[in-house]
Amino acid sequence: MTQQSPNALPPPAITARGLMRSLDRGSLATMLDGGPAGIWPYASLVLTACDLDASPLLLLSDLAEHTKNLAREPHASLLFDGTAGRDDPLTGARVTVTGEIVPDADPSLLERFVNRHPSAAIYAGFKDFRLYRMRVKRAHLVAGFGRIHWIEASDLLYPAAAFGWLRGAERDILQHMNDDHAATIDLYAQRLLAVAGEGWRITGVDPEGSDLRRLGQVARLDFPSAVANLNDVRQVFAALAQSARHQKASH
Q1: Per residue in 89-123, pLDDT tens?
Q2: How far is residue 88's CA from residue 111's CA, in Å, rounded to a whole number?
Q3: How far apart are CA 94 and CA 82, in angstroms?
Q4: CA within 13 Å, CB half, 50
Q5: Is the distance from CB of 197 to CB of 189 less than 8 angstroms?
Q6: S-S: 153 plus which of 17, 34, 136, 201, CB 3.0-4.6 Å?
């Protein structure tokens, strides 16, 4: 990936993709068939995860109104809102991702979603629930006043050719880190991300970072640079651990 100067703003696609990966929910807009009343936009809250390329993943019930809408018309949009906690929300970043949301039976995607949302394991196997993936078309990023960009899918999504190796390796990475390095994960959260508490777990790893969760709280640990193989993953986690321990020792 292209190196940025310390004071340079990241490219819009990286900002948008990072926002999508960091959040675990979004506002889904589908088209509601109101019968004689006509077709109306219908917004609903959904839990989200991202595939390795950042394509949004949803686990939806067939009985939900938004799922019925998608069956009739798969074109939809998802708003990822990163403005929480700001005195003026309009200075924060948010991105609306547009595309088609369609069922995807790939078990690795369902596993990724359930890792992100452990409570979903209770109903993930129900016959009326299925995993959906958004086929991204474009995204509209508003990252504060004056930073407004349309982003094509080819720029927004991380290139598939760069992470094929990770598809089969992610489960082992998660097991190793969560089973053997639990204390280090807590250090990542506490010292690098400034979030409190113990018992953090890594729920996902992608080329640009890892997703952490503790109870209902999520956090995003970005890598200093993208990883391209398993050795890179080992090295970046070791370097982040060293950095976290140094910060702990310096306080």
Answers
A1: 988 999 999 999 999 999 999 999 999 999 999 99
A2: 37
A3: 5
A4: 31
A5: yes
A6: 136
